[in-house]
Design brief:
It contains two helices and eleven strands. With about 190 residues, it is mainly beta.
């Protein structure tokens, strides 16, 4: 599969981008320009560029109680002045993850490679499409988790944005929200 053959190069790219986020970079590198991710279709995920503190909560097994999580930090960056949007997920409980998001103009949707520490399959291929409401809905293409899930990014509001994960237990006839998060600009401690 396409992503498996690219995984070694992708790991190098992730390392390079993490390094640029923590060290001064030359202005001639393709990782410092954001304009290309803030216009046209790239703006769909480009509007989340920045460094975010995350508050999260999970639905408990009783089906009605929400329990606060350990939180996270989530950094969104623009690659190649609009080539892709990459993010770095750093949960409060440890581990790391990254998404590489590329826009497919032909299908007017996004192809996303998701990789996380300890992920049994190495990566997941996710597709996303922006709805007329401005919400971006992501669905897993490979491997498809059991039970199936989808993720919705909501448009930013002043000061932050929200996201939710839902699962279906009846083959997509209904969806149950099982995880939610709220993002606010990162404040150094």
């Amino acid at each position: 599969m396409f992503f498996v053959r690219l995984f070694p190069g992708f790991a190098v790219l992730c390392t390079a981008v993490i390094a640029t986020a923590t060290h001064a970079v030359s202005p001639d590198t393709p990782f410092v320009e954001e304009l290309g991710c803030r216009e046209g279709p790239m703006e769909q995920f480009g509007r989340y560029l920045g460094d975010w503190d995350i508050s999260d909560a999970s639905l408990q097994s009783d089906g009605s109680t929400w329990k606060a999580g350990a939180g996270a930090r989530w950094v969104f960056t623009c690659l190649g002045n609009g080539t892709a949007v990459q993010d770095f997920w750093m949960p409060g409980g440890g581990g790391v993850g990254t998404n590489l998001r590329t826009y497919n103009a032909k299908s007017e949707s996004w192809d996303i490679a998701w990789i996380m520490t300890g992920m049994p399959n190495g990566f997941a291929h996710i597709q996303a499409k922006q709805e007329s409401s401005g919400n971006i809905v992501m669905t897993y293409k490979s491997p498809v988790p059991e039970p199936p899930r989808r993720i919705t990014f909501f448009p930013p509001e002043p000061g932050g944005w929200k996201w939710k994960m839902e699962q279906t237990f009846d083959k997509g006839q209904s969806w149950t929200e099982v995880y939610r998060l709220s993002a606010r600009r990162h404040t150094p401690r």
